Each structure stands twice: as structure tokens, then as C-alpha cells.
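Quick illustration, no need to memorize.
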Amino acid sequence: MPRTLPLSRRRLFSVLSAHSELAVILGGPFSGKTTLVDTWLATDPCPEWAPVVIPEPAHDVTPETYWATVASSLCTSLGVDEPVAAEGSFDSLCSILVRHPRPVMFVLDGVRSVEAIEDRVGQLLRLGPQVRMVVTSRAAGSWAELVDGHPHRTIVGDDLAFTVDETAALCRLFGLARDQRTIEWITRRTEGFAAFVAAVCATLRAEKPDRVYGTDALAVLVDSTIDLVVMHVVAADPSLALSSRSVLVSAAPNTVTESSISALPHIDDSDAFLTALTESGLIEACSTDENSTDGETAWRYPEVVHRSLLRVGSAEYPKELWDARSALIDYWLQRSRPDIALEHAVERRDWRCAIDIVEKNWVALYGSGSLRSLGIVLLELLPDDMTTNDRTVASLRTITRARNKAGEPEQWAFPRSFETILRLGSLRMQGAYDEAMEVCDGLATEPVPNFETLDDTTRHAHGLKYLNFGTVYLLGGRTTDAGTMLRRAHTAGRGVFVEREAAGKLALLEALRGRTHEATRWIEEELRHPPIMGEAEALIRTAGLVATALVALDRLDTGTAFRALSELGTPRHTEELWAAVMYARGRLALLSGVPADGLLYIDSELQHFSHRLTGISAVLVDAARADLHLALGEARAARELVDSSTHPLTAPARARLRLLGGDPGGAEVIVHRGDAAREHCPAVGAELALIGSVASLRLGRRTDARRHLQRAVVLAEHAGVTRPFVGVPPSAVRDILSLGVDLPIDLDPAMAEYGIFREIRVVVRLTPRERAVLDALLAGGTASTIAKEQFVTLNTVKTQLRSLYRKLGVHSREEAIAQAYRLVVG
């Protein structure tokens, strides 16, 4: 499912853009508020305003923490230093706005849990016309008081539902050909809720886009999809997740009151539960009070949500939705809360469902501890007719019960490889990749099974194992081992999320190597899989989107790269592939001609990931930052980052550093080392060969220069890239073209648009005697003639020449003369 819906909400863009002070977007969790705002922002509606986008905070956020986050983001957007914390975070925010009166547009998403948010927003608006606010919330709060009577403020809420035309547009976006009657039916069945419509489109695409559904079959598909979305919202809300059965029971009468809540089973604090329901946005106030009693406030679930909760909570889940219920359980387990799904199955005495949950997802259940209690209950309650002859039950007993040799009470036993996977996850998040790779090395030598002979559960377990191994090797920088393990994971994980995640990481691996043809094939494979509802999608999509951006950049397609990275957004602090995002953003900044902005962004994000700046992450970040520094003419900063590196991904920056700094001989040394060829990185090899060509030209060796250039062309065409040809200084273009080699790119206009690296005029300080010797060399003198002219011995001149060569970074008279014309000699 696309993360933005560019064709579907444009009718609301003008509403957001027209109200210059405050736009409040109110809606439940299914209304698509955040997507609407993200899509609107992607159109760059207010280019003169500095955007400060604050994502939805945690449900227990304190005001001090929240406003500190806002103040920090504001400083980042304005490019100013954060103030010393001498006052409260909100007061600091106000003082920053007063001191820096640049127009600022705050986008505050999901603010329902922020205490006194309306009052604080009102105070910010009173600072002056340079402040604009866009706010989304599930709760109406007192926003009306802030909006009423102000012509430039508005509340958007009642018109968030999709129209039939918008549903049709979204279907087209998903590549679905649907007749008008079907479009109208889907819109009516989902009540136009954005999340439901988008989820239905994703499900239709995942099935068979061209399949013609009858009314009953379409109803099953739509209802089951709605159930997935509704149950995810319940599971994702910490206040409701552990009371989910009470949510299901509360839907029995659609009207909810305090008295009806207090009568629910398993509810100790009815007030807290009702508050959680209202703040979650699941229920909404009734338009009339005809159903209320004794003056109580009456609430109700939206009808589409009400029907979904009744279906899921029914002891007899409709038979026509049996397959859909299996999909629902699979969704719960792989992307949300398997412990709650197991609890519901045991409560309903749905043994087959419960066994399926345990058997397919016992690793996750073990991690949560739920299997220790619910598993025992399950085993004790299994009916007699489900004997151990049943393969599923036998498997359940095998993986959940084992007695130790001492005859002590039952313990829960799990295969060593899965316990290892849990440990690997912890090591990866700590950035301890070397230790994690040692663990993988100890297990990777086990024989690879024939996946075709395994049952799905065992095969998927192997897929998960190899996916973890491949991820560890990728993060640790062992690309060959990573590719091997990820390909095994893709094969073994067929049919579950592992297959898609492995494809995305293989795409990223090939994109980093600069093998764009292979990367494109894996990107297409990753896109073949439907998106996952909920936060799991954010974890899985990163690799594919970064790979898409890197491939586009290697082909000088900055528009596609920008869209991919915009869709991805700023990486979360738990994102393992954060450095790959920084690397892609750095390359985009270079080709866009804004290296200072790219460097500022990366440096600001590094503080969140400094504890994981190891392995491939350190290499990628250093390579990106070094090139950004070089584009700004900051050779010393670039040298500090990559001068001691030997990794092929930093080789172009190291060679470019020497070339731009006037050391073509040093650049050639790096080119001849062959790091890129050893690691099978054709795009890196092409870039190095081009730098080698320029270096040879500056050393007066045209034959070598032509040979390097021909190699660059062959490697670039093999990899399908053109970016390497704009990685040299524009001053070298004439010389490159003079070599008479056919290039895969029109170099003059390409350099005019994308060329950003300039010669770094290095200042070399010489003694008066060294300067005199250099002047004599430039006049055509030799060591002997210089000695005679300056009335010194030949050995003295040779000593001075050695000192001069060392300072110029050359090794011969010819190189010294060439270098002198490129340097500022003082």
C-alpha cells in the first residue's frame, strides 16, 4: 500500500493551504489523517515556511518531553544551536521563535495524549504571523474554542471520508481495474474510511488484480480486511491491548455508556477503560441522546467498526470468513500481539486456532512469556479426541513440553537456533556486529536442508534463521556471506514476510555494490509482495526504498530518489539500516547541489545512532560525509574520515580527495589497489577508473588515461550507471573528451547539472630557498644549473629538491612543475 495517496485527497489540500494560522484535522484511527498531511506536505505547499514535523508521541509522553522534542526539531529546521536548558522546554521554544522570526509551519501529529495541547498551541499562535500550525488528533478536545471566530483557522473532520471518485482513483493507483458498481460497493461497505479503502485495495492487488468477484466473495474479502485493520488498532494501543476482549464485548450493544462499561467482565476500572476507548478514537459521541440514560453521555462505534468487532468477538466466527479468520490470526501473530490472539483462541475453546498460533509463532510467544502460562492452559484443556497422532498436536507437545534429566517440574524447551536469533537481535541493536557474526559463523556451517522436502512451518523457521544471519553479515560488512544467507532466506521464507524482507535486503546489497541491474530485479521482487498493515511495514520497507533511491541516483534520476527517500522519511531510532538511509541522502544532496544541507542532516541524525556506528554503518556514513566535505572544499575534514580506511565503498572518496587536493599520483595508487574489483563493485570500479583517467592526464600519461577511461565505460555499461562520470572536477571535462572514447553520457550538460566537486586550492608554505629552487625549475633549470646559478653545491640543491617534492606531494621534476601550477604556493 502506498504511504501517500496523491490522487485521493487533493480536494482537501486547498482547505489546508487556505487557512494560514491553524488547521486542526480530527478523525479516528481509520480516517487517514496522517497520510493526508504527509501527502499534502509532499506537494511543498508553503515553500517559504520552514516545516517542523513532529510525529505522534508515545501515549505516556510528558509535556516537558514533548515540547523539548518540538524545540529540538525547530532548531534543526532553522539551522541554529539548541539553547542551554535554563528554562522550561515550552518557554525555550517560544524564545527561539522570538529570536529567529523566520516563518515556521509546525505539523503536530497525533497530539491527543499531550496535556493542555490546545492552550500551548494558542500561545504559539499569539507570538505572531510567522507561526502556522497543522494539528491532527483523534480527540475533539477544546479545539473548537481555539478556532471559533477566527477566519484563518479551521477544523477538518466531517469530510475526511473517501468519495466514490477517490476510491476509484486509489484503485487505479494500485493498478486495479474495477467497474463503477464495485467501486461504489467498496466505498459503502468501508464507509469511506481511508485506512479501510487502502487496505482493501492492497488486498485486491495481493490476490488477483484482474479477478472478477461476486458480491459474496467480495464481501468476505472486504470484511476480513477491515477486521485486520481494526484488530491492529486495538493491539497497537497500550491502553486497550490487554483489555481487547472487553473491547469485543463492549460492541455487543453499539451504544456505550458508563453504566454499560461498568457491567463488562474483566474491567476493574470502568472510567479508565472508557477514557481509553474515547482517546483511541474507536468510539464517537452519539449525535442524539435518545439512547442515553440518567443524563449519561452516550458513545457509539462507527458502524463498520461495530460490525467488525462483533464478527471477531463471536464464538462462532462466520464460516464464510473462516479463511479470513486464519489471515486475521496470521496478521496478529506476525505483526502485532500473538499473546492476545492466543488468549482469544483459548477463551473461545478454538483449539485448532490456538495450536496454529503456537506452532507457527512460538518464538515470538516465547519472547513475550505468554507461552509459559497460556501454553500450559492450552495443553490441559485440549479435548481427548485431539490425540498425539495428530501431527499438529504432536508438534505442539514436542516444542512446548520437556522434562529435564533431574525430573524437576516441566520446563519450556526451544531449539538453540531460535534462542540464538533472540540473542542476535540484541547484539544487532547494540551495534556489536563482530560478536554477532561470530555467533552466526558457529551456526552457519550446519548443513542446508532441502527446503522443498520440509513442511511450511519448518521451512519458514529456517527462512527466519537465514534472514537473521544475512542481516548480521550485511550490517557487519561481509557482503558475500550476506548475499548467500539472504538468498537462502528468500527461498525458505516463501509465502511469509521473510520472502519480501530478504528480497529488499538483497536489493540494498546489490545497490550498495553498484550492480543496478541485479538490484532492480530484487526491487521488483520486493514490490511483488503486498504491504503489511501496521508498524511492521515501517521495519520491512526500508531496504527496498533505499535500494530504489541508490539505483535511481546511480542513473542520475534524482526525482525518483527524492520520492523514495521522502516516502521513507527520517529513520526511527530503532532502524537498523539507518546508515544506508544517510548514505543515500548524502548522495542525493551531492547531485542536488546542496552538500551543506546534506551534511547538516546527517550530522544532526548521528547523535541518535552513535552507539551503532560500527560495521558497514561506519563505512557508509564516513563515505557520505567525506564526499560532502569535499564538495564544500573541506579537505582536512574529509581526510580525517576516510584516510585510514581500506573499504571499497570509501575508495572513490579517498582517490577523489587526493585528486582534488593536487596529488594525482596518490589518487592513482588508490585506483590501482583493486578494492572494488575484489568486492565485485562495478560502479565503484567505474568511478575509480574515471578518477584514474583524470589523474593520469595530469601526470602527462595520455595512454594510461585512455586505458582507465575505457575501463570506466565498460564497467559503467555493465553496471548500468552514469553517476561516476560526474564525480570529477568540471575542469577535467575537456581533457576527458579529448581522449576520443565514446562515453555512455553527454558529459558537458551532465556536469553542468550535477557536477559539484571543485579543485581544492591547497596552500603550500615554502622556505625562501625552496621557493627559489621551484622558480628555477619552472624556468627550465636542472639541479646542476640551479647549483651554479645559486652558488651552492649540487648536494645542497638535491636536498632542497627532496624537501620541495615532499611538500608538493610529488616524486619527480615533471610532477613538481605540474603540481606547482595547481597549488597556491606561499
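The chain has a mean pLDDT of 78.
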